[in-house]
Amino acid sequence: MRIALAQIDARLGDIEGTCARIESQAVLAHDQGADLLCVPAPLMTGLAPGSLTDNPNYEHALIAGLRDVARQLETLDMEAIVPAPVGFEHMPLIEVFLLRDGRVIPLRSVFAAARNGSGEELWLPPVFDVRGVRLAVTFDVERDVPNLPTGCDLALYIQTASFQMDDEATTGVAAVADGHVAEAARSRGVWVAHMAPVGGFDDAVFTGGSYVMDDAGRVVSMAPCFEEALLVQEIERGRVAAALETHELPQFRREAWLWEALRLHLRDSVEALGRTRVVVALAGDLPSSLAAVLAVDALGSRNVVALVVERAEALTPAEEEVERTRRERARALARALGVEVVERGPVDAGAMLAADLGQDRRTRERLEAIYLEQLARERGAAAICPLTKTDIALAAPWFADGCPGDLMPFGDVYLTELEFLARERVRAGSAIPQALVTLGEVEACLARTVRAAAAVMPGGTDFAESAAGLLGALEPAQVDGALEAHVERGLAFEDIPLASSAPEALALLLMLVRAGEAARRRLPLAPTVSARSFAERHWPVQLAWSDTGRATEERLCVADLVSAESERIEELGEEHARRVRGEVAALLGSLLGLDVADLDPEEIESELMRRMQAAAEGEGPGFDLGQLPPGMRSQGPHGFPFFSQN
Asked: What is the residue extent of each domain of the chain?
């Protein structure tokens, strides 16, 4: 059997267009002798469709489109696997549709109904035959492959996890080096076909890199990363296929993979907005310069327009020189990138607002935002916002009020990461000025963000100055490290490294993150490339609590309360049992003529056992049945009544 992995991109929700792409890929695969075509999971609606799956007309349109594809495949004598989210008990479920003989078969639901079980057994990998090859479809290759039924030849692994810069497992064939999938394939003796998506889907982005691995754990064929491709491979169990050498496989490099993922997401997001061009405000700093380079990489220099705004804040000759250098740096970068430059001056600002407001930084930034939005409308372009995750973590209220832009490519990337991204891009031949690729530039950007965060703090000027001084004493790596520990890993105050060296500054950082919750929701779309983006980390907007640590108090948690209450109930049960046992023993002792007043329950029980044993052996006095109530005088074995025996 020959399998084809169609590593293709598509516009979310364009069911008709996506089905047409699947049909065209099927024709290409048929020309290469393929029997089964597989497509990525996010194609139809992405992997977070929300309530869309509850819409009956969506399900109708999906099935109708797949049915048309199935009829076309029937004429080619081919089958296809198309994963797509559907509604299941009011929750989205990624169904696996098998297109066979003109029919659309929801494999997971059909197999679950046949199993008629409950829990995880319902969603074990569906197993079926294609041209004599027994195939299982899985969304978790390491979990499911060791438990596949005997006789299974191929595990089709459909990737659903989007790219995360700190998780190599999300990078397709570049993750083979860690050995986990290869070990699973060798131990079970099955082939593995990894269907990896490529492109940006809402806030998720995928790197591609589909591959086929034989039953010895060797990669025999692969698709390229970060581009569309059709991979066709013969599957024959027990056959020794020519394998790729280790050095031929792509190696994961964090900054390179992150840059390409951001490029892909920006390209697809601009297209999703119905635009072909973008505008970027060049401020002569690292974030805006890097955003311009990213836009050129994603769309080409002809589709990027740079805006340079002259600022009227310079009052002294030194300040005028700094402003002149800033503008010249922005112009030089635009020339090097080959993009169109549009300039605006302070006179234009005065035409919009009173001239005396032009000295205010916040007013000036709002004016620049107005310029950017106007230019974007004039050119029919999308506006790029160069804010980083550090910016929106600390100063979201400041930026949200006048934040320009439709897209925020660095919204899930910390400020310190930009320096390493820039270094990676410079090695590839970027035009970014060397003066911007330094720790000093990162510190300057962080200082501006800290001042913005302090400016919108409640409590007056004195408190704002004190807060700015407290945060200004921190290094950029300390700030981003604390934010990463808090946002991505969800660590408690005491577990964040900064807690021991600067607890007051850390408390202020976490308070700023909490206070910006509402403002962040007004910011442009950002790709998710970390373990947890702010889009995923939603807290109540009206929340007043911030993590300021426990001081010296011992940590309290519900689990400890449950444990303590369980122990208390157990102790009460033991005490109750002892009391009941003592009462029964005292009753029996009184029936046998024992003086139990000075004996504890254990002694009463011991004496009762001795007397009962002696009576059973005929060596002691028996029971005086006359002392028992009439209903308890029936004799049992050895002369003991039923009550005594039990």
From this structure: 2-252, 259-520, 578-645
322 has a pLDDT exceeding 60: yes
CA separation for the pair 227, 468 (Å, rounded) = 45
Instruction: For residue 384, give the H/E element and its range.
Output: strand 382-384
**Number of other CB atoms surrounding residue 641 within 10 Å:** 16
- Of the chain, the percentage scoring pLDDT greater than 70 comes to 89
Q: In what order do the strands lie in the sheet with 79-88?
A: 103-106, 91-100, 79-88, 36-38, 2-7, 229-234
The full DSSP string for 317-365 is: HHHHHHHHHHHHHHHHHHHHHT-EEEEE-HHHHHHHS-GGGGG-HHHHH
Superfamily of domain 2-252: Carbon-nitrogen hydrolase (3.60.110.10)
Closest CA to 379 of 277, 461, 476: 277
Classified as helix, coil or strand, 553 is coil
Q: Is the pLDDT of residue 215 over 50?
A: yes
**In terms of Cα–Cα distance, which of 393, 354, 402, 351 is closest to 508?**
393
Which fold would CATH assign to domain 259-520?
Rossmann fold (3.40.50)
- The two beta strands, 103-106 and 91-100, are antiparallel
More reliable by pLDDT, 630 or 108 = 108
Q: How do residues 128-170 score in pLDDT, each as one tens digit?
A: 999 999 999 999 998 999 889 888 999 999 999 999 999 999 9
Average pLDDT across the chain, whole number = 86
Instruction: Note whether 184 and 192 are within 8 A (CB).
Output: yes
